[in-house]
## 1
Amino acid sequence: MTEEEFYNLSKPQLLEGAKICIENAHNLYEGAISLELKKSIGPANSLMILSIEEYIKAFVLVAGYCDIELDFKVKPIFRHHQEKHKLGVEILPILRLVEVVSDLFDMKKSVFNKVMSTLICIQLTWSPKRKKEIQEWWEKANNEKNNGLYVGFRNNKWKSPSDFSEEFYQQSKVIAGTFKNASKSIESLRSDDYKSIQLK
């Protein structure tokens, strides 16, 4: 998706896209859990990371739906995942988005109370130490996503998805779970709810 395409979408289209992304993210998340139960941790981790990418896309779309001015380009979020995984850059705008949201909305009157509350919960759970951990996780995520799917040969030895780190997978699962929980309130939004936004 280009910048032009994003900003030309109607409110119903933005919300529809967010809900489709959330549905896909849920499916990927549940697929990961199924693989985890079968002790197939490498592929489970890959699906978990893909679910996180889809949740992030949903939050960006709902930001457009809520008329929140974005101070970052949307194209990399929809097209260039390798950049996201190299530096973890794309997770940081989501944190900034949460800060902007908490300033813009009247939490007591807005129909977006639930949405904003869950976003703020994400912000509160990500202390500076937590943000650093997430940044480090993103720096490894793309490689680990690939390692969970493909057999490779590194450092003069074969690497298999079956060798995957349980610890990294559990971290992926926690991050995905945070987004999954926060997305629940978005699913209940209606296409015309944006009209009830109460700006301070």
## 2
Amino acid sequence: MGGTIYGPRGDAMKINNMDEWIAIERWAECQQMARPGFVFEIRNGAGQSLLAGRGPLLSQPFDWSAGPVRFRMVREGPRSGPISAPRG
């Protein structure tokens, strides 16, 4: 799965594979990249990662020792239902 996305300045970026990492400086373009059934994996310089939807970057998690450096699109996993109330 691949394709071409266009940034806010009209510059084209070819994506050959959804597993390709993209520099975090291009995060503003995630709106054009978003596809149903996919989310973005963001990875920091220490190798830690998180999943995020499109939109502005939120503050980094408290346990991250380095800032975000790249992201890629990954298939969204199945969603679970709400946690049941304890029995007893």
## 3
Amino acid sequence: MTDTLETLRNRVKANENIIASYKADLNDNPLYALQWYSEQAIIAALWVENGNYAIAAIEAGNADKLHIRLTQDVRLMATSASFSTSQVANLVERHRLAVRASILEMLEDNA
């Protein structure tokens, strides 16, 4: 599980850097940043949120519960796609599924 924790910490840190860069880009040229980098910022925010959640669960000794929760979430999200009228909300949900599936894969590869 040590490898998983290290990988998650590195992933969270890298995505925190992406968010910081996006914030700077928003200050410099908001329209350009929104047009070209919004999706990357969404993915980065999801990695930070879900990565920190996974790190906390693993550090608390709840890796098995995390695995069960992620398995349930991924199955549910994959079989009941979001159909919001908001395109951005749908985009977030698609990427949330991908991030959670990636974390689940990390857990299974390093079990």
